Amino acid sequence: MSDFYYAGQTDERMFVGRPSSFYLNFLLMSTPKINCTSPAYPGKGPFSQKPRAVGAADNDRMFLLEEYRLRISELSMSRFVLEKGEDPETCTLAGKLTNDHQHALLSLSELAASASITLPRSSAGMIRTQLRALSQFQPQQLTRYFILHQRVMLAWSLPLFKCYSSFAENVLLRGYAQHTVTALHAHVPAIEQLCRRWQLDT
């Protein structure tokens, strides 16, 4: 597989259908165009503890909300593959990701509570729609889709979280991003191996 996992290089094929407008906005905000020597952001609370670029605290808040929503979706998919998948190696990866997403959601809930942020009460409709679509796949199709999906998510997420581990206003959120980078790297070998075995490494 190519080096985009490690170098943070972008390949527009890897972004099809994934980044929301917020994440694209975040990537623009986190370029050197931001003047971090500007006057301190005059907000209050855990998301404004030290001088940063104007809007950084709001960006933290939006990142947390979007990350929470995406983690719920990823957890639902991993659980489905773990239950319905027939390839043992892919199911092993799905099990590890299920565990990662569960821990991440707990961390995000704690972060939101510390910052008085209200998380979405229910994503039931989104999950039902996702599961209906996944249930249409034959076993081999499901495996191939899941592997490709994880390849896309890894290529997209690593540069994002590496950047956010330095850029986030909130120190706890920076720690969350740093931990996520480590967790993502831990899954690289398994995803690379699955891509080679299923001839998805071109």
Structure at a glance:
The chain has helices at residues 4-7, 21-29, 56-84, 88-114, 124-134, 139-167, 171-197.
Describe the overall structure:
The protein has 202 residues and is an all-alpha fold. Helices cover 67% and strands 0% of the residues. The chain is built from 7 helices and no strands. The protein has helices at 4-7, 21-29, 56-84, 88-114, 124-134, 139-167, 171-197. The chain starts with a helix and ends in a 5-residue tail after the last helix.
Quaternary form = single chain
Strand content: under 5%
Give, in order, the helices and strands.
HHHHHHH
Provide a count of the helices: 7
Rg (CA only): 18 Å
Helix content: 55-70%
Shape: globular
Judged by helices, strands and strand pairing, the structural class is mainly alpha
Biggest sheet record:
none
Mean pLDDT score: 79
Distance between the termini: 7 Å
Low-confidence stretches: 1-54
Number of beta-strand segments: 0
Write the layout of secondary structure elements.
Layout: H1 4-7, H2 21-29, H3 56-84, H4 88-114, H5 124-134, H6 139-167, H7 171-197
Structural features:
202 residues; mainly alpha; 7 helices; 67% helix; 0% strand; disordered N terminus
